[in-house]
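User: Can you predict the 3D structure of (S)-ureidoglycine--glyoxylate transaminase? Sequence below.
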Amino acid sequence: MKIKSFHPPQRVLMGPGPSDVSPRVLAAMARPTIGHLDPKFVELMDEMKSLLKYAFQTQNELTMPVSAPGSAGMETCFVNLVEPGDKVVVCQNGVFGGRMQENVERCGGIAVMVQDDWGRAVDPQKLEDALKANPDAKVVAFVHAETSTGALSDAQALVEVAHRHGCLTIVDAITSLGGSPVMVDAWDIDAIYSGTQKCLSCTPGLSPVSFSPRAQEKIRNRKSKVQSWFMDLNLVMGYWGGATKRAYHHTAPINALYGLHEALVMLQEEELENAWARHQRNHLALRAGLEAMGLDFVVPENERLPQLNAISVPQGVDEAAVRALLLSDYQLEIGAGLGAMAGKVWRIGLMGHASNPRNVRLCLGALDDVLGRMQAPITRGVAVDAANLHLAA
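Assistant: Sure. Here are the predicted structure tokens for (S)-ureidoglycine--glyoxylate transaminase:
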């Protein structure tokens, strides 16, 4: 069989990621490839660091994109800050806290797990109790925005508890960066990682990270080598450092970085506060429509992530069949549940370029149609009007 060029269908991506990519970003990625040590590319790298500092709200010099997806950003934080025998308190309230545990153990560390119900924020008092019981802990790790459930935790409070007990902090901001407030310096976060495919409106494949001076000191003074050569920041910073002369470390994904640069320029143009407000406004419109229809949110309102909405599947409804019809009839992708929530929830994303009123109306209208055809226990014909009332307010 002769294989031909691949032409993907045009979808509307309203799942947990990737989200829709801005045409400006796609156009930027099609620009001519130059060398990864070209003086012009070095200029772009410096601009990228400045733009990421703005997105993270930090002055950390060690702020850059890892040349791999968000999972590699997570691993970069753990392999650099966790040494064999280190005790790490990991807060888990969903799937991705479990991945943090995996990272600790693969680094030879000892993971002390603090468990919260899935769909709830991390409880700072539980962290406080765990640190009192483990005074030799060196690091606290938690997920700011748990993508598997749509729960948003109070990062500032958790970091304050960790620092009071002498621990460094590792924070997962994969789904929050660009969509909800993330204040690295004001909250005193030590290490943080994110992904480009969520609220930054970019393609998957890069992971912005930032490390505080305190975290950098820990990395410089390790007793053992970082277990990953590729992710060893002592080496990587020879390439991403601030000096004019860059040392070769790896061939950066040049065109992908063009895309991230453009996405961050767009975020700067919109301004962070406006981006946060846009995600919240569209979430509230979606909420109005879903609740008018009779669908329920998993996460309590005061712990809810605006850009990732976990919705309970109505009794008797085949959730996979609903997603399949949305995709075939409306070219609309929403997400399934993960782990303990598999088969029980839909995850509806309103992230980045996809967070707009048109998508809110499309999603509500499509759900109204598909669930109506399935004779689901919903109120029909009211969702879009309820959202429009909110959008017009």
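The longest strand covers residues 87-92. The domain at 272-392 is CATH 3.90.1150.10 (Aspartate Aminotransferase, domain 1).
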